[in-house]
Amino acid sequence: EDKVVQSPLSLVVHEGDTVTLNCSYEVTNFRSLLWYKQEKKAPTFLFMLTSSGIEKKSGRLSSILDKKELFSILNITATQTGDSAVYLCANQGGKLIFGQGTELSVKP
Amino acid sequence: GAVVSQHPSWVICKSGTSVKIECRSLDFQATTMFWYRQFPKQSLMLMATSNEGSKATYEQGVEKDKFLINHASLTLSTLTVTSAHPEDSSFYICSAGGTGQYSNQPQHFGDGTRLSIL
User: Fold this and answer.
1) If DSSP codes are grouped into helix, strand and coil, which group holds residue A74?
2) Per-residue pLDDT reduced to its tens digit, A53-94
C-alpha cells in the first residue's frame, strides 16, 4: 500500500530558529514529491520535486529530494510567527497521497 | 492569482438538506479534478476522482450515492452531499491540475468549503 510518512507530527520553536521537516515515502508510482503549507484554508503550494539532489529555494524555505533513500526534507531558516502552519508533503502519481502533516508553531 | 475556485466557502444548514459545492479551474481545462475531505487535526483524505464526461472514481469507503459528483465541463466539477447529517460536517476541498498534459505541474487547491450540518 502506498504510504507517505511525515515527522515530527508537531514542533514548537521560537522565532529565529531553523527547522527541518521530514517526509518519507513508499509508493508504487512515483512521479513527484510536493510540499504544501496549510493555514486556516486549503493547502498552498510550496515546492515540487522530481529529481534527486537538486535543492529548491524560495526565500527562507528550501527543499530537497533523495530518490534513493525515498525521502525529502523541508528547511525553514530564521523562522517567523507567520510560518506557523501545518506542512504537508504528498506524492503526486496521478492522485495525491498525503502524509499526516507536521504542525509547526513558531513562538515570538 | 487563484488557479482553482471553490464555492461556497461556508455552509450551515439543517439535517436532511442536500448541499452542492462547485469547483472551477480558472486558467486551464481540467479533465480530472479531485475531492478531499479533512477533519480537524487530520490530513486530507481523497474521496473521489472526478472525470470529465464520465463517472467519478470513488475511494474505498466513500458512498457514491451520498456524495454525488458531476464533471460536466472541462472547467467545472460539483460535489453534492445528499441528505446531509451532522456527521457529514467537515472541510471539503477540491483540486485540479497535475494530471494529463499538466502532470509536470502541481495540483492546486480551491479555498475549501466548511460544511456544518445542524
Assistant:
1) strand
2) 999 999 999 999 999 999 999 999 999 999 999 999 999 877
| CA proximity to B92, closest of B82, B76, B108, B81 | B81
Task: Give the span between the Cα atoms of A26 and A28, in whole angstroms.
Answer: 7
Average pLDDT over all residues of chain B: 91
Q: CB B99 to CB A94 under 8 A? A: yes
Q: Which residue, among B36, B18, B32, B38, has the nearest Cα to B76 in the 3D structure?
A: B32
Angle subtended at Cα A39 by Cα A36 and Cα A45, rounded to the nearest 5 degrees: 25
Residue A19: strand pairing partners: A76
Do B95 and A96 form a contact (C-beta atoms < 8 A)? yes
The answer, for B51 touching chain A at a CB cutoff of 8 Å, is: no
- Consecutive H or E run containing B67: strand B67-73
**Using a CB-CB distance cutoff of 8 angstroms, which residues of chain A are in contact with residue B103?**
31
Cβ neighbour number for residue A42 with a 10 Å cutoff: 24
